[in-house]
């Protein structure tokens, strides 16, 4: 039995973070796919507070929440590969700031666009997604220092945080019938996204966009069916 396990779900960008971090550190692990409609006893026992994926199991301990997991992997396997988090304290703080922005605001804008009803709501939520991409384009120019990734020569913390949501951006592009990351509007991100998605640590775990779009339609339908009927 593997000493390291990841409990996950194929469509979750947050699960991808843990898997890519392990790949970057060349850590062998067992991936366990969860049925989120019927969660396993192992998941419920390992993450009794949130009952969510991802969960990293290592040496008899369980670690939850994707950003915490990535930092844990970086610290435990510190000598296995270059550090995922920047070594400079200021750059590390900046990366954590943008990671918080992604999780607290930008990913919520993507979810809102996915389930938006009506043209006005669709336009408003799409504008929030585009605002985030414009910010990332600007920050990429500052952080990369002429190198291919936010982390420099290698994929780093912010690359993982943003990059794992790229497939969902492509789903939103599909639903909106427009390109959000293209060579004209976001030339830096356009090149970065190609480099990220083709990286050895990434390409084999990215979800299929068509399958993800179909799953997105199911999520949207479930959300709309759960909304209270106007009186």
From TrEMBL:
InterPro entries, alphabetized = Glutathione-S-Trfase_C-like, Glutathione-S-Trfase_C_sf, Glutathione_S-Trfase, Glutathione_S-Trfase_N, GST_C_Tau, Omega/Tau-like, Thioredoxin-like_sf
**Locate the GST N-terminal domain: which residues?**
2-81
User: What residues does the GST C-terminal domain cover?
Assistant: 88-231
Q: Which UniProt keywords are given for this protein, alphabetically ordered?
A: Cytoplasm, Detoxification, Transferase
Enzyme's top EC category? transferase
Extract the CDD domains matched here: GST_C_Tau, GST_N_Tau
Q: What is its main location?
A: cytoplasm
* Gene Ontology biological-process entries: glutathione metabolic process; toxin catabolic process
What is an example of a GO molecular function annotated in this UniProt entry? glutathione transferase activity
Q: What is the catalytic activity of this protein? A: RX + glutathione = an S-substituted glutathione + a halide anion + H(+)
* Gene Ontology CC entries for this record: cytosol
Q: Cite the EC number.
A: 2.5.1.18
Question: Record's Pfam families?
Answer: GST_C_2 (PF13410), GST_N (PF02798)
Q: Explain the purpose of this protein.
A: Is involved in the conjugation of reduced glutathione to a wide number of exogenous and endogenous hydrophobic electrophiles.
Assigned protein family: Belongs to the GST superfamily. Tau family.
Query: Which named protein is this?
Result: Glutathione S-transferase
**What species does this protein belong to?**
Corchorus olitorius
Q: What is the lineage of its organism?
A: Eukaryota, Viridiplantae, Streptophyta, Embryophyta, Tracheophyta
């Amino acid at each position: 039995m593997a000493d390291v396990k990841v409990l996950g779900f194929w469509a979750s960008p947050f699960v991808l973070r843990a898997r890519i971090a392990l790949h970057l550190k060349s850590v062998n692990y067992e991936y366990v796919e969860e049925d989120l409609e019927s969660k396993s006893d192992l998941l419920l026992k390992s993450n009794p507070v949130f009952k969510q994926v991802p969960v990293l199991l290592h040496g008899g301990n369980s670690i939850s929440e994707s950003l915490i997991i990535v930092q844990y992997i970086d610290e435990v396997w510190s000598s296995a590969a270059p550090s995922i988090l920047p070594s400079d304290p200021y750059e590390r703080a900046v990366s954590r700031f943008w990671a918080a922005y992604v999780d607290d605001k930008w990913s919520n804008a993507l979810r809102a666009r996915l389930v938006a009803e009506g043209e006005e709501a669709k336009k408003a939520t799409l504008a929030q997604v585009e605002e985030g991409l414009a910010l990332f384009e600007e920050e990429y120019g500052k952080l990369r220092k002429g190198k291919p990734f936010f982390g420099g020569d290698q994929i780093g913390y912010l690359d993982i945080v943003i990059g794992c949501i790229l497939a969902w951006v492509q789903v939103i592009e599909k639903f909106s019938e427009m390109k959000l990351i293209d060579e004209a509007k976001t030339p830096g991100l356009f090149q970065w996204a190609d480099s990220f998605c083709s990286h050895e640590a990434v390409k084999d775990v990215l979800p299929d966009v068509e399958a993800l779009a179909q799953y997105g339609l199911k999520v949207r339908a479930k959300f709309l069916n759960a909304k209270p009927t106007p009186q």
